[in-house]
């Protein structure tokens, strides 16, 4: 059984340290602490499930997963998840990481807010989703080891996190609310943009330019 100190360690390879420095430089303390909690939660979930995952790749995915909310990484017209995934792709590719690993990190970040899919994908993809789900929504809270959870939160505090993360989400895509269509983040736009309503899928079908023929 790993010691508590071992369970609280983050990868310390040169690549991981560079990812940490990028996160520390551009992210707020709220996003920084959240990202490291996500990694530690996800890594423990992986150990508990006896999954074979790459800790370094999972860590880098966690470090980049919300950087799409930061203006330096935010595009004008992509989902914030895709912006973060693209930033991770550039970072990993610039260090000569094999394409399969790059793609795994991209998928993990791009899908980290998409329910019902990631559990069927590579372990790093599945674990990033569950780590985020635990930290943001409390999914799996009661099943996670209490002492370890408390140590993680003590090391990377949740200072006004519930309100703060919602504001961070909104700040990251307030300029492009249309990119949240079909995702849970549309709820954030509807909450904070007066009069905003996400497009309705049924209305979009009805508005298609294809004419319907009548059945005989």
UniProtKB/TrEMBL annotation:
Key words, A-Z: Hydrolase
Residue span(s) of domain HD: 31-137
One of the Pfam families matching this protein, by short name: HD
PANTHER family per UniProt: CYANAMIDE HYDRATASE DDI2-RELATED (PTHR35569:SF1)
InterPro entries registered for this protein in UniProt: HD/PDEase_dom, HD_domain
Name of this chain's protein: Metal-dependent phosphohydrolase HD sub domain protein
GO molecular-function terms, A-Z: hydrolase activity
Organism from which the protein derives: Terriglobus saanensis (strain ATCC BAA-1853 / DSM 23119 / SP1PR4)
Stretches that traverse the bilayer: none
Hydrolase listed as a keyword: yes
């Amino acid at each position: 059984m790993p010691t508590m100190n071992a369970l609280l360690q983050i990868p310390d390879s040169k690549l991981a340290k560079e990812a940490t420095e990028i996160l520390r430089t551009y992210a707020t303390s709220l996003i920084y602490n959240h990202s490291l909690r996500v990694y530690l939660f996800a890594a423990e979930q992986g150990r508990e499930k006896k999954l074979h995952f790459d800790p370094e790749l999972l860590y880098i995915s966690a470090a980049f997963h919300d950087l799409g909310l930061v203006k330096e990484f935010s595009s004008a017209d992509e989902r914030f998840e895709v912006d973060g995934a693209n930033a991770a792709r550039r970072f990993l590719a610039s260090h000569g990481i094999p394409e399969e690993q790059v793609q795994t990190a991209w998928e993990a970040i791009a899908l980290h807010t998409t329910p019902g899919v990631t559990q069927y994908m590579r372990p790093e993809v599945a674990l990033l989703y569950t780590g985020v789900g635990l930290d943001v929504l409390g999914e799996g809270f009661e099943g996670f080891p209490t002492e370890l959870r408390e140590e993680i939160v003590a090391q990377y505090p949740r200072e006004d996190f519930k309100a703060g993360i919602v504001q961070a989400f909104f700040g990251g895509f307030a300029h492009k609310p249309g990119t949240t269509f079909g995702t849970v983040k549309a709820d954030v736009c509807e909450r904070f943009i007066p009069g905003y309503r996400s497009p309705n899928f049924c209305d979009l079908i009805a508005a298609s330019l294809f004419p319907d023929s009548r059945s005989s």
